[in-house]
Amino acid sequence: MAQQTNTTPHSSPVQSHASNYFNGITQIADVFPVFISVAQDLWKRAEEELATIAAEAEQLTKQIIDRRDEQTQMNNRYLQERKRFEQEIMRFLSSLPNGMCQNQLSEVQ
């Protein structure tokens, strides 16, 4: 009695395509865990980079706000000093005898 085998000398095109398709899927399945691992590593790095960028942005924002506040304080001091100086000039000019500095007073006012 002759032994029967599952292989045939000539596979049909459908069997050949199915076998190739199955082999391709098997190869993809074999490397899929590697892709997942690489994707997870990339995601972790991206999260770390974003955390670093967010911390730097927060620090820069704080510096900008601090500098803006310092500039506002300097501007306010300047305006106060200017007003005080103008008042001093007005007091001085008004303390002079009548008519002596009328032109200067009218220019200041």
Describe this structure in words.
Keywords: Coiled coil. The protein is an all-alpha fold and 109 residues long. The chain has one domain. The chain is 83% helix and 0% strand. It is built from 2 helices and no strands. The longest helix is centred in the middle third of the chain and has 83 residues.
Keywords:
mainly alpha, 2 helices, disordered N terminus, coiled coil
Helix-strand layout with pairing:
Blueprint: H1 13-95, H2 102-108
Helix pairs in contact: 1-2
Q: Portion of residues in helices?
A: over 70%
Low-confidence stretches: 1-7
Mean pLDDT: 84
Shape: rod-shaped
Number of domains: 1
Overview in brief:
With 109 residues, the chain is an all-alpha fold. It has helices at 13-95, 102-108. It has one domain.
